[in-house]
């Protein structure tokens, strides 16, 4: 079960990291267009700043699950590493359970949040805010899934990402 969870976690993380990288490329291009517009061509395009905001939100929200897959929360790792080994496994499992519950909550209530975005208009694009607001439940669901997979993969053991098989 641990090996299967490791494989699923690594595959899901691989996909998410590529999506985040693509969003970051689009963000850089969008900001570049905004700079060229403002200082060279003076087209006064209204959309680069708004699009950059939504791309950044999506990239940041999705990147959370990549951090979970690698257990890269430096503050939490520093705290857990100070706990005696005999208690560490239980505490890591408890933290994984609380984290999983939090992200299920975020995903569930994020759906209602995204639905409210369907009734609101983005002033620049004339489209609804459903897609930008959808980043909350999508990221919450991905984080919940990744937390479950990481908990199954590690089974309470605090491991380095390379030992846990996340170097792919």
TrEMBL record:
It holds the Pfam family DctQ. Residues 31-153 form the Tripartite ATP-independent periplasmic transporters DctQ component domain. The keyword Cell membrane applies. The keyword Transport applies. It is found in: Cell inner membrane. Its main location: membrane. Keywords: Cell inner membrane, Cell membrane, Membrane, Transmembrane, Transmembrane helix, Transport. It is a multi-pass membrane protein. Belongs to the TRAP transporter small permease family. The complex comprises the extracytoplasmic solute receptor protein and the two transmembrane proteins. This is TRAP transporter small permease protein.
